[in-house]
Write a structure and sequence with these properties.
alpha/beta; 8 strands; eight-stranded parallel β-sheet; TIM Barrel
């Protein structure tokens, strides 16, 4: 089973950014950058300035997760900073979904939409065929380290079935509590991209290289027939 790993840079040790990017550049498939405005979620995280600062030090795709009230205000600066793909929450683009999607496509960027735990898959019906990625939040957005919401496994499976029925090729991504306790059920349900944060990769007591090796072993073990 093919899967992709997207480390969440909000969870990295900011004091070791250059060192940790060197490790991730050799191993990760993309980099996940959370941008928060303090309104859509009651927290602040990374920014266009952060993307601009890391851009010279990585050739990996930078995937921006916009947890903001007005995503259109952030798109221009993030494109200029070097972001490669954008994931926007379904609730905030409902008034201008097609405008935002086409703005990003015209700029040569990939487009994703994020579903909060209480947001149904049906919210995407009219523009699902235009998306490169759908992200399922398995925790409520805004903070790292929250407990896994098990009801989201069925949402992932629903997306997987819909993707097959409509013969679409968007990636199914999972954000929240991706770790050794959840790898098997997430991937079996149809997840393809795992966002790894504080519970699955970045740990203050373990070097990143070692944590990556442990994570890889845990995923492969979860996918092995003997684990079933």
């Amino acid at each position: 089973m093919k899967y992709y790993i997207s480390p969440s840079l909000m969870c990295m040790d900011i004091m070791k950014t250059a060192e940790q990017l060197q490790v991730l550049n050799q191993k990760a498939d993309m980099l996940h950058v959370d941008v928060m405005d303090g309104h859509y979620v009651k927290n602040l995280a990374l920014s266009a300035a952060f993307v601009a600062q890391i851009r010279p030090y990585t050739t990996l795709p930078v995937d921006v997760h916009l947890m903001v009230e007005n995503p259109a205000d952030f798109i221009g600066p993030l494109i200029e900073a070097g972001a490669d793909s954008f994931s926007v929450h379904a609730e905030v683009i409902s008034r201008e979904a097609f405008r935002i999607i086409h703005t990003l496509r015209d700029a040569g960027k990939k487009v994703g939409v994020v579903l909060n735990p209480a947001t149904p898959v049906e919210a995407l019906n009219h523009y699902l065929h235009l998306l490169d990625k759908v992200t399922v939040m398995t925790v409520d957005p805004g903070y790292a380290g929250q407990p896994f919401i098990p009801e989201m496994v069925e949402k992932i499976a629903q997306l997987h079935r819909l993707k097959q029925q409509r013969q679409l090729d968007f990636l199914i991504e999972v954000d929240g509590s991706c770790n050794r306790n959840t790898y098997r059920q997430l991937l079996t349900a149809g997840a393809q991209v795992l966002i790894l944060g504080s519970s699955g990769l970045f740990r203050p007591d373990v070097a990143l290289e070692q944590a990556w090796q442990t994570m890889t072993r845990d995923i492969e073990a979860a996918l092995s027939p003997a684990h079933a």
